[in-house]
């Protein structure tokens, strides 16, 4: 049944209802000239871009699939590559995965984890989860079957959460770039302490955060710059003692340097954050400065993207 619904979601593209929503969100000529494409889908902050096919039940809680496969650089907090299958054995060095599982236990959502691409190759398998979380994946981490499956899942109303180097993934796939909010990783400055400004405190992911909070990260610079999204948090570049310029000399984004945002995309929901580089960022027991606020941000993003809380408001 889920596969049939996914197929129906794909078939819905180009229908009068979906076409009208796409037309309503179509950027102006001026916006296109400024690099604000619509990626051929309905995207933005309007719930009109969401497809509610009844594929997901939150009455008994939610469960997410954590995907951390890397096909390029691998962040230290991921630890060694995981074995095949679902929920393979983790070592203490798999800090990010262990932390996400612990956060799920603390905040009431289930987590399965994998780096096995075959676990993403079936829409029926993805529809078992209220959201799919890409945490510091890298480069071409999906094959054709997994790409198609992810699109079917999102178009069927699925939730997507992209954390940190999810922005360094699938560079040559325009649909995925749109899923990230029309943004991609370009470079980053030094791993250093800074101050995050909570720019929107209405969303469930940010409503309990202070207006300003300290955090340490790499502070990604982005090309393209996110568009047609609801910005939730930004880094105050003036607080970065070593500056924001990266290896490829990106000058930063000035007074509007986003680190978290949300959007509806091609029938689904997406919550994105460039933060999450640190070794203890996902550990609920961490006492490092700002980690508690970061965890509130991503937990709220996961719950809203999964449909347990209001999304992107």
Automatic annotation (TrEMBL):
InterPro entries in alphabetical order: Class_I_gatase-like, ThuA-like
UniProt GO molecular function: hydrolase activity
Signal peptide start and end residues: 1-20
Residue span(s) of domain ThuA-like: 94-285
Keyword terms: Hydrolase, Signal
Record bears the keyword Hydrolase: yes
Name used for this protein in its record: Glycosyl hydrolase
């Amino acid at each position: 049944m889920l596969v049939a619904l996914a197929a129906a979601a794909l078939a819905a593209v180009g229908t009068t209802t979906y076409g009208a929503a796409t037309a309503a969100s179509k950027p102006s000529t001026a916006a296109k000239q400024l690099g604000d494409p619509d990626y051929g889908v309905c995207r933005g902050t309007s719930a009109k871009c969401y497809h509610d096919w009844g594929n997901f039940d939150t009455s008994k809680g939610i469960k997410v699939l954590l995907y951390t496969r890397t096909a390029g650089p691998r962040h230290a907090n991921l630890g060694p590559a995981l074995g095949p299958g679902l929920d393979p054995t983790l070592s203490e060095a798999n800090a990010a995965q262990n932390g996400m599982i612990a956060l799920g236990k603390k905040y009431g959502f289930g987590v399965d984890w994998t780096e096995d691409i075959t676990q993403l190759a079936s829409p029926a398998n993805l529809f078992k989860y209220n959201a799919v979380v890409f945490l510091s994946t890298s480069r071409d981490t999906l094959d054709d079957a997994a790409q198609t499956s992810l699109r079917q899942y999102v178009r069927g109303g699925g939730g997507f959460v992209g954390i940190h180097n999810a922005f360094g993934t699938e560079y040559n796939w325009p649909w995925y770039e749109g899923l990230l909010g029309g943004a991609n990783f370009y470079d980053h400055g030094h791993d250093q302490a800074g101050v995050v400004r909570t720019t929107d405190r209405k969303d469930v992911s940010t409503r309990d955060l202070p207006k300003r909070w300290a955090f340490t990260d790499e502070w990604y610079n982005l090309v393209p710059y996110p568009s047609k999204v609801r910005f939730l948090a930004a880094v105050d570049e003036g607080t970065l003692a070593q500056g924001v310029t990266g290896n490829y000399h990106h000058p930063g984004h000035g007074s509007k340097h986003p680190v978290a945002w949300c959007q509806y995309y091609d029938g689904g929901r997406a919550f994105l954050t460039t933060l999450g580089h640190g070794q203890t960022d996902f550990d609920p027991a961490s006492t490092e400065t700002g980690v508690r606020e970061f965890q509130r941000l991503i937990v709220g993003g996961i719950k809203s993207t999964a449909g347990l809380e209001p999304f992107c408001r």
